[in-house]
Amino acid sequence: MKMTATHEIETTHFPILSSQSRGWENILVEQFQQPPGEATCHYSYEHTIYLSLSSRPIRLLQVHEGKTYAGLYAKGDISITPAKIPCFARWDGDDYYLQIRIASRFIQSVAREALAMNSEPLELLSEFQIRDPQIESIGMMLLSELKQENLGGRLYVESLTNVLAVHLLRHYSGSKPRLAIYKGGLPERQLLQVLEYINEHLNQDIKLADLAQLLGISQFHFSHLFKRSLGIAPYQYLLQQRVERAKQLLKQTDQSIVDIALECGFNSHSHLSKQFRQLTGMTPKAYRTN
After folding, report:
1. Whole-model pTM above 0.85?
2. Residues 193, 145 share a domain
3. Residues 6 or more apart from 192 whose CB is under 8 A from it?
4. pLDDT, tens only, 268-277
């Protein structure tokens, strides 16, 4: 499900970067840089994570669920506001932060499919000022992806979104579910089925949901089992295969590098060149003439 404008918000602040037009499903990531001010937000269908990026601590006051918190927020400090909870904030300095909104329906589906929890609505807990290295790490990886124009980045973003959802459920929900541990990886037949699908759709924007649906398992468990099988994440394998296909076309055809980039699922010559250089140590042009 794609993020839609199903929230209510009373603020005049606009992000300097947003994933709104990127087609990311279940998650909206926005980077803000604000002068001193205040805002009242109310997201009916999304849980909200605030991650401070400010190099200098600022004094922040927050009010939600009848609770008030005031303190100095420094880089890496996090607050969590559950869906349907109005939040008022006031800050006295230039604020620089990342806001991550994740669909509450998606959290619910992850709880049901990945954690085998019952279908009763799950409640996340409000958090004012916490440190959570995993949320911070996921947030910075999402921000890095937001700054790039990677067509093949959707599989990567979906993997991060699933990991974030499970982490929130395990650490910030009213009930603490246990994540089932699966030993070993995917059965050979299932692994070959997935690899064949990837090979046949390299030029398309492959979704994590598509791969998990092939095997009838949750996205989170698929990612875990795939990595146990091959030692790398699905998005890393996809990137490797796209570069391998590009290598073949560079040596065996006289197609332009732009056409090869598009045929292999990259959105531009420069996108192919960047990923190609990272994996092979040389540019596509140099590889072709070598």
Report:
1. no
2. no
3. none
4. 888 888 888 8
